[in-house]
Design brief:
Number of strands: 0
Strand content: under 5%
Helix content: 55-70%
Radius of gyration: 23 Å
Number of domains: 1
Oligomer: single chain
Low-confidence stretches: none
Number of helices: 6
Structural class: mainly alpha
């Protein structure tokens, strides 16, 4: 009886961008972890805009809904603002992973994180309890999903190794750093 063949990896389509691709399917944890303080500031401002706008409209042109009508609608406006703010935060961070916007800080963070994982002997993108076939399904379903997230909220929450980049650069950099450490260690004795 023949062994099951290894599932085929469908390579992601490469977008022509001005900045380097870091990850075509970043994990949800990485997206929020790599977000810049300016992303949090912009998303916080956007989240506050909805309830503030509603409050201002109520002051300019009162709705006269009575005693209990304003609070539920204000809660709804706040919830809409929070969801919109999170969407903006996720979008700004993902655009840097995709290379759509300036991402030199994230490129450096990614290189440092992955090289450290190589040095420790850990899998680059984490270990997964999911079969390789289902990892591929998850990767194909969530790759570049941020571009359509305003219609269908879809996030990568599966650890897999299909991220659209050549991971050899991490191993080469780790080897260079380990060699430099060895040379520095032998030269100082």
């Amino acid at each position: 009886m023949a062994a099951d063949p290894k599932p085929a990896i469908v390579p992601p389509k490469r977008a022509n961008t001005d900045y380097p691709l870091i990850d075509s399917d970043p994990h949800l944890r990485r997206v929020f972890g790599y977000a810049r303080p300016s992303d949090y500031a912009v998303s916080g401002g956007a989240a506050a805009a909805s309830p503030l706008a509603f409050w201002a409209m109520e002051r300019v042109s009162p709705s006269h809904v009575g005693r209990g009508g304003f609070a539920p609608v204000m809660r709804l406006a706040t919830a809409i603002g929070l969801i919109g703010g999170l969407h903006i935060l996720y979008q700004r961070s993902c655009n840097r992973f995709y290379g759509f916007t300036e991402n030199s800080r994230e490129v450096d963070m990614d290189m440092k994180e992955m090289v450290d994982k190589v040095k420790r002997g850990e899998p680059l993108y984490g270990s997964s309890q999911v079969s390789p076939y289902l990892q591929g399904v998850a990767a194909r379903n969530s790759r570049f999903s941020e571009l359509f997230i305003h219609v269908l909220p879809w996030f990568n929450i599966v650890n897999h190794d299909q991220h659209g980049i050549d991971t050899a650069k991490y191993y080469q950099q780790a080897e260079r750093e380990l060699e430099a450490d060895r040379l520095a260690g032998t030269g100082s004795t």
